[in-house]
Amino acid sequence: MKKLSIGTLLIVGSCLTGQTLAQPPAPLIVKITGITDGSPIPPKFAYCTSDGKGRTKNGDNISPAIIWSDAPVQTKSYALIVVDPDVPTSFDAANKPDKVLPVVFPRQNFYHWVLIDIPAQVTGILEGKDSSGITAGGKPVGRTDYGTNGVNGYGFGGYDGPCPPWNDERLHHYHFTVYALDVASLHLPDPVNGQLAQSAMTGHILAQSEVVGTYTTNPTGVRR
User: Fold this and answer.
1) What local confidence, expressed as pLDDT, does residue 76 receive?
2) Which CATH number fits domain 24-215: 3.40.50.300, 3.90.280.10, 3.40.50.1010, 3.40.630.10?
3) CB within 8 A of 219, min separation 6: which ones?
């Protein structure tokens, strides 16, 4: 009897069940000026930086330049989500001189930038376009000429960079992900948060890619 390849078996199986195998999203090319995948994020892009005395001070909080390409021809809009999954679920011990946040402490997602409904003709955002410093009271949410800004984890609109606790032993990872979507708008009410935006994109993602940068303000070193 002739043996069938795994690929053939999968195709035959899908035909027998009447199901079409789901195709994973195609890759985009995403580049961030000054941030290399897997490498530290420069302090100028951070909300806070080390003060040289074991604590932190305000940073430049500049939004990085991001460009993307190779989107499918069916793309009708983009979304940009920046999330840190290494944020502690409780801040009771954060930045306390007599406390330490161990690597094994429970973690949650913290969104640093939620930008949706980016027009299909927009394929990049210049450095400092969305944030050029810390804005008193926070930046607004809503429509811009490069998309609609949702609310980030700080409770503000637009981009606000890294500021992990200085007593956290875990190295924080910041996922800058661009999504190419098959809809011109997600039709979400303001203010939209990261979780809602990601949920609304389900089933509409044609392609995606990310750059992951790392950051810490812990002067004693961290573990991944």
Assistant:
1) 98
2) 3.90.280.10
3) 50, 54, 166
